[in-house]
Design brief:
Two copies of one chain form a homodimer.
Chain A (H helix, E strand, L loop, with lengths): L2 E12 L10 E16 L5 E5 L4 E5 L5 E5 L3 H19 L6 E7 L9 H16 L6 H16 L5 H8 L2 E5 L3 E4 L8 E5 L6 H14 L1 H24 L2 H17 L5 H12 L4 E5 L6 E5 L5 H10 L3 E5 L7 E2 L2
Parallel strand pairs in A: 3-6
Antiparallel strand pairs in A: 1-2, 1-13, 2-6, 2-7, 3-4, 4-5, 7-8, 9-11, 9-12, 10-11
Helix pairs in contact in A: 1-2, 1-3, 2-3, 2-4, 3-4, 5-6, 6-7, 8-9
Amino acid sequence: MGVVASAPAKIILFGEHFVVYGEPAIVTAINKRAHVTAELRTDKRIYINSPNLKASGYFSQKNRFQAEQGGQEARIKLEPIRIAVQQILNLYKEENGVNVNVQSKIPVAAGLGSSAAVAAATATAVSRLLGIEISREDVFRIAYEAERFVHGTPSGIDPTISTYGGVLLFHKDRGPTPINVKEDIPLVVGDTGIERSTGEIVSGVRQRRERYPSIVNPIIKAGGKVALHAAKALEAGDLTTLGELMNINHAMLSAIGVSNEFLDRLVYSARKAGALGAKLTGAGGGGCMVALSPPDKLKQVVNAIEREGGTAFVARKTNEGVKIEG
Amino acid sequence: MGVVASAPAKIILFGEHFVVYGEPAIVTAINKRAHVTAELRTDKRIYINSPNLKASGYFSQKNRFQAEQGGQEARIKLEPIRIAVQQILNLYKEENGVNVNVQSKIPVAAGLGSSAAVAAATATAVSRLLGIEISREDVFRIAYEAERFVHGTPSGIDPTISTYGGVLLFHKDRGPTPINVKEDIPLVVGDTGIERSTGEIVSGVRQRRERYPSIVNPIIKAGGKVALHAAKALEAGDLTTLGELMNINHAMLSAIGVSNEFLDRLVYSARKAGALGAKLTGAGGGGCMVALSPPDKLKQVVNAIEREGGTAFVARKTNEGVKIEG
């Protein structure tokens, strides 16, 4: 009998990239979740099946990999999930084998925190399967370790939000502070469908900053102020100000070189369809944009983004972090 | 017998808007000129004919206006030219009547300094017609007075560049400093054809700054640094860096809210056609954009902008300020 856990995707509302340099960012968990089913095996292998990654296969106790789907590339794709499982096993000195089945509707490599959500859900499902109560702090830590395999030195935003849910003001050194958001935040996410390497984009920003410190550093600092203004607007339920700040934030991300024409077209199409503001979200260079829409314009904004060639869906903030299902 | 004088249009390469708040801007005179022919009249009226404004008519000594073309609106359009003529007459206590014929190829209300070029050429032609040597300082001052009628409190960039030509680092308080540019700067100007009110756009920026000082002030300051970097790149003939700085500057102008979709589309089309960088120029909200193009890509950049719905022309810097023709 399996145990199912789920964890939410995230949208960075403000401050991506600037957060790398110590400025605050705002991130919200959204109602698009990764579900993970964990089952005991009779042998000691770890079997992972992730249809959204088009990858499945077996890891032996000695960490040999045998692909079922996706060939040897599957190993790389499944490795963060294996890391999450293995850490749970290590933590409790268990030697069980487990099956892990991922059902995720979160677009992959799109800046929505898919891999962290899967890792958090995996750690939670597997620990419950083994009859262990795991703390949220441990889930976070394990998802963070899994993220390190994907991103090298991740900011920690993705595992934090997947674990805790809600809306957070995130600070690299000080960590997360919950923002008290009473109102609904009706969002539309538009996916360019272009996968990009976060690492390369982050390193491009670093190069621009090294080349023009007197230009880029003040923009980064001002990016932090955008996030602080936005936190107040979120608490006040002031969607008009939030939208304006999203537009400003988008242009500042363009200034550090991470937007592109497709993202800008989706952003404009959303604004023209009635969005209060729109910006790229995540690393940029592809991936997703997000629009803040009046509730009665959500459909128009979705349609406008799709007419422009993106894939769009409505997303709402959720306070539910990682959890056991059913 | 008439006297012909001409003065150049300008392109702001860097720092529009930021210059209002005391940051440096870079402006270049371009090889698109306003020509003005001045002739003596036998009566004391001032007749002005400006086909590019679709306006002509007579100003009496008592400043009554009689339209020939363009109705009573023509009065407003022709007033800056009348001011230029009248100041010359006042300066030398002349009571002659004059005919002023404008032939200008500079797009109007597009941020290219058309009115200042016409005013500078008018002052120069009329004073020569009256047999007077006028200093460049006086031409500047008169063109500035004419500009005040158009813009209220102009920065002084337009009359400066129309008078002196060349490439200038312009500072609101310190005035202009010539930049020593040895290389050609191959530019393509793309006109959206959308006329906009500079005053309204400037006031929109002021409002955004008042609302978000901690965001907008650092962007303004960083805008000044972009111009200083660009001045060095211009002196070094480093077109690649110039292009990159133009792209950054464009995004910073978006952040203060003065770009729009049409301008962005022209900017992207120019970059895709091989431009090293592109940005809006002038007030924004319409008007023109400018692209820096490798010499062998000028035609492609022009075509790309026109395919996107703009009107494009190649522009090169000129060192020739206002001058008597022939």
